[in-house]
Every structure is written in structure tokens, then in C-alpha cells.
Design a protein that fits this description.
The complex is a heterodimer of chains A (246) and B (264). Chain A is an alpha/beta fold and 246 residues long. Chain A is built from 9 helices and 10 strands. Chain B has one domain (53-263). Chain B is built from 9 helices and no strands. The longest helix of chain B has 40 residues, at 3-42. In chain B, 41% of the residues are buried. Classes of the chains: A alpha/beta (246), B mainly alpha (264). The A-B interface holds A 45, 48, 50, 74-78, 80, 82, 84-86, 88-91, 101-102, 105-106 and B 129-130, 133-135, 137-138, 140-145.
Chain lengths: 246, 264
């Protein structure tokens, strides 16, 4: 479904991606791990065509999104949901209006149908009570859940999550991941999760890939990654686990 | 000439070349930005509620500041005009002088500068914050064009609001001039307003309208562009806002000269 091939990207002469390659089958979720500032979010932005690579390709169902433009790119993006790290909610709209926005702009649904759908999704993420609040009036966890609801209100075929649990307390983080799992079971989307919460994320992903120094150094099932003898992978996992245990 | 001297000259030339190339690139990008916005403006769908909201923000909410600046500009013109014209025994021409100054020059230019300060800066900051908080990326990722939601409504609102605000500025300014020239300094009401009809042509009024239309596009175009491509973080937005206001203000005065030389 998604094939990233030899992706290279540099910013102001500093190479961030130096030949990233991996692939994900339809319906699979991949966890993308790696240190902060190593380019995980940059990879996600290439997958949705928000950034163009210096070299390399991102194929979605065999079509290279890096070379798409105009309506073709818009049509492809319509099939993808993206959960931004900070939520990217429209600050001038309420929770309800944020979630309703894709339906209002991209479907011919009546206001009644839109209201029904939005309330269903808001109930799914536990935000019915907060529907009339503005993003500035709700907590970080609620912002993430609203953003999740907005990206799922038109069911996507591909979902990309950019650090969905960063900055949240363990209970809310687990709630978000449980939501992702249940929605995946319902919709069967193909997904990529960028996260540092390895212990939790490994419960819901099918594969994991480790990004280090601009390249993927290990790919495998969560079990294979945990058992990997690669010192970089082990250091990353142990560092995280040790830190979690402390 | 020493080798060190040659290196310095080469370095200066290199920097000059890089600066020229960057300036050309920016000009190309800013031109393409307007073309893209104009293309979205002439191809449906137009976002009615977004346009109305912008007319309310750029137009209606600027009326108080336009009213005040128009009144004071007219009063100063009345005062200065009266003393100047009185020296030549032409105080009766105060009305046409105030009206012509306002309709042809001060109305469009001062209105545009006030709207730049009030609405232009806010547009850059708003779009800039949307950029750094990834709200623009979110619109793009929904398969929608951010131009239709963020740029086109502002551009259209600028085109609609600026001529109306300029008209308010002109009318308030003319009455401000009368308040000082007529009520305080004794120029008769009939003389002040009656002489205007003899000296003001349709061409003068149309010239003012063309100018305000041009400034309406200019303010919203530059403000949106600067916000759209603002740098990273709050510092990037603040820098973009300052640059937007300065660039727009300079361009308003520059374009005013160009338009005046062609229109009148």
C-alpha cells in the first residue's frame, strides 16, 4: 500500500534523510521510532506530499505522490487522515465546527446528517460535552482527541499519527492509543505512528521501523525489534524502557 | 592590486549576486501567489461566509479609525488651506481644495495606510499563526485549497471594502474641513460646498476609486503572502508582520505616485 523508496532530504545543506526505505502492506500499522529531530515527522510529511524529496519516491498503491500536483494530489490526500502533533485545530472554530469542517467542505450532506455524524464521532472520542468549546478552552488531551475525530470523520484509507501521545499523562495517552486500536479494527486503515511510547505503541502496531542518522536501521514486528541485537535499536528501546521504569 | 583586495571584491560581488537572485526569486514567488489567488477567485466555489466575515473585519471594523483619521485630515486641510489661500485672497476656494486633496490623494492613501496598520498586520499575524500551528497544512491535507479559505476572501474583502472606506474618509474629511474652514474661520457654507461642483470632475472621483481598488488588492495580497510564508515560531510571525506592514506602506506610496502620473 505504502512504499517509501530511497528518500533523501536536506535542509540548508544539512541532510536529514539519507536514503530512507520501507513499506507497509494494506491494513498494517507501522511504528516509526527514532530520536527527536531525526526526521520522523519529515517522513510523514513526504508521505502526504507536504514536502518534496531531494531524491527518492513515496508510492501509494503504486503511484508516486512526490510527482502529483493539483487535483490528483488533492484526491490522493482526501484518502489520507493526518493527526498533527499539536492537533492543528482551527482556533476560530469550536470543537463541533472543527470536526464538521471536512464534511461541510467535502460532502453534499445535509446539516442534519453532518450533525449526526459529528456527534457520533465526538461520542466515540468522549468529547460530546466539549462540543461547543474552542481549542483554547480545552486540554492538550482533548485537543488531540478532537483532531483525531476530525481526521476520522470521513473514514480514511491511510492514517498518519505524528506523536499522538506526546505531552499527555499516561492515562490519556493509553486512552488515545486504545481509540486508535478500536478505530483501526472498525475501519482497517493502513497507518504510520510516530511515537516514543514504545511499550504502549507496540501493543497496537504490526511492524516497527527504527530511524537513525537518516536511514532505517531496523524493520520488523515489535517482537523482532525488541529482540534485535542491533546496538542502536537496543540502546533506544532500553533507554525508553529504563526511563519508563524510573 | 593585492590578492586580499581581489578576494574582498569577489566576496562583495558574490553577496550582491546572491542578494539579486534572492530578490528576483521573491518577486517571482509573490507574483505567482497573486496569480494563484486570482485564479481561485474566478473559479468556483467562492466561500460566501468567509468573504462576509472578512468584509466585516477589514471593512466594517475599520470604519471608526477611518472616520477619525478622515475627520482630522479634513480639519487640518481646512486650517492649513484657509491660511494659505487667504494669503492670495482665494479663501473661497477652500472647499474645492479640501475636496480635491482628499478625493485624489489623501483619501485613498491615508485610508490604505490605516487599513494596512489595522487589518493588514492582523491578516499576516493570523495566517502566520495558522502556518506555524500547521492549520494551513491541515486544510491542504483535507484535499482543500487554503487559498480559497484564507487568501481569496481577504482579497475580495479588500477590493470591496477599500473604496467604501475611502468614500467615508473623503466625505468625513470634507465635513471636517468645513467644520474648521466654515464654522470656525468663517467661509460660507454655500461657498465651501457650492464651489466644489465647479472644480471636481468625475475623473477625479474615478481616479480615487481606481487607487483605492489597487490598494485594496495590494494590502490583502502582501499581508496574506507574508503570513503564508512566515518563518518559524512566534519570532517568524512577528518579523513577517513587520515586513508586511513596511512593504505595503512603501508600495502604497510608490504606487500612488505611479497611478497619479497615469490617471491625472
Amino acid at each position: 500500500m505504502i512504499r517509501v523508496e530511497d528518500l533523501h532530504k536536506a535542509f540548508n545543506g544539512f541532510a536529514v534523510l539519507k536514503g530512507v526505505s520501507f513499506q507497509i502492506a494494506k491494513g498494517e500499522i507501522l511504528a516509526l521510532m527514532g530520536g527527536s529531530g531525526h526526521g520522523k515527522s519529515v517522513i510523514l510529511k513526504h508521505v502526504v506530499g507536504l514536502m518534496k524529496p531531494d531524491r527518492g519516491h513515496v508510492f501509494i498503491e503504486g503511484r508516486d505522490i512526490c510527482h502529483m500536483k493539483g487535483r490528483e494530489l488533492q484526491a490522493m490526500r482526501s484518502r489520507i487522515g493526518f493527526l498533527f502533533q499539536g492537533g492543528a485545530l482551527f482556533s476560530s472554530m469550536t470543537v463541533f465546527q472543527n470536526v464538521a469542517f471536512p464534511l461541510r467542505e467535502k460532502t453534499n450532506w445535509s446539516e442534519k446528517q453532518i450533525t449526526e455524524r459529528v456527534l457520533t464521532v465526538l461520542e466515540q472520542v468522549g468529547l460530546t460535552e466539549a462540543k461547543d468549546k474552542y481549542p483554547a478552552e480545552i486540554s492538550g488531551g482533548m485537543i488531540k482527541r478532537t483532531a483525531l475525530a476530525r481526521s476520522l470523520v470521513i473514514p480514511p484509507e491511510i492514517m498518519l499519527f505524528d506523536e499522538p501521545t506526546t505531552g499527555l499523562d499516561p492515562v490519556i495517552a493509553q486512552t488515545i492509543l486504545d481509540l486508535i486500536r478500536s478505530i483501526h479494527q472498525e475501519l482497517g486503515f493502513t497507518g504510520i505512528i510516530v511515537s516514543h511510547e514504545l511499550a504502549r505503541v507496540f501493543q497496537i502496531v504490526h511492524k516497527a521501523a527504527m530511524l537513525h542518522d537518516g536511514v532505517i536501521v531496523a524493520v520488523g514486528t515489535p517482537e523482532e525489534i525488541v529482540k534485535s541485537e542491533d546496538p542502536i535499536v537496543q540502546r533506544f528501546i532500553r533507554g525508553r524502557i529504563d526511563w519508563t521504569l524510573q | 592590486m593585492s590578492l586580499g583586495h581581489n578576494i574582498t571584491i569577489m566576496e562583495v560581488l558574490r553577496k550582491l549576486g546572491a542578494f539579486s537572485l534572492e530578490s528576483l526569486r521573491s518577486m517571482g514567488r509573490i507574483g505567482l501567489f497573486l496569480l494563484k489567488a486570482l485564479f481561485c477567485m474566478i473559479t468556483p466555489p467562492l466561500k460566501g461566509s468567509w468573504i462576509l466575515r472578512q468584509i466585516q473585519f477589514i471593512g466594517f471594523q475599520s470604519t471608526l479609525v477611518i472616520f477619525l483619521t478622515g475627520a482630522f485630515a479634513g480639519m487640518v486641510l481646512g486650517l492649513q488651506g484657509y491660511y494659505t489661500l487667504n494669503r492670495f485672497g482665494s479663501a473661497a476656494l477652500l472647499g474645492p481644495m479640501v475636496a480635491l486633496s482628499l478625493i485624489r490623494e489623501l483619501g485613498p492613501v491615508l485610508s490604505a495606510l490605516m487599513v494596512t496598520g489595522r487589518a493588514g498586520s492582523a491578516i499576516t499575524a493570523e495566517i502566520g499563526i495558522m502556518r506555524i500551528s500547521e492549520q494551513i497544512d491541515a486544510i491542504e491535507l483535507m484535499g482543500l485549497s487554503p487559498f480559497r479559505y484564507l487568501v481569496v476572501p481577504k482579497l475580495l474583502a479588500g477590493i470591496i471594502a477599500l473604496p467604501l472606506l475611502t468614500a467615508i474618509f473623503d466625505v468625513v474629511g470634507i465635513f471636517g474641513g468645513y467644520l474648521v474652514g466654515g464654522k470656525l474661520l468663517g467661509v460660507g457654507e454655500g461657498t465651501y460646498f457650492g464651489e466644489m461642483a465647479n472644480y471636481i470632475d468625475l475623473e477625479d472621483v474615478l481616479g480615487g476609486i481606481y487607487k483605492s481598488l489597487t490598494f485594496g488588492v495590494l494590502i490583502t495580497w502582501i499581508a496574506s503572502y507574508k503570513g503564508f510564508y512566515s518563518g518559524f515560531g512566534p519570532e517568524g510571525v512577528s518579523k513577517a508582520t513587520t515586513q508586511g506592514v513596511v512593504l505595503t506602506s512603501v508600495l502604497i506610496l510608490f504606487l500612488d505616485y505611479i497611478l497619479t502620473s497615469f490617471l491625472f
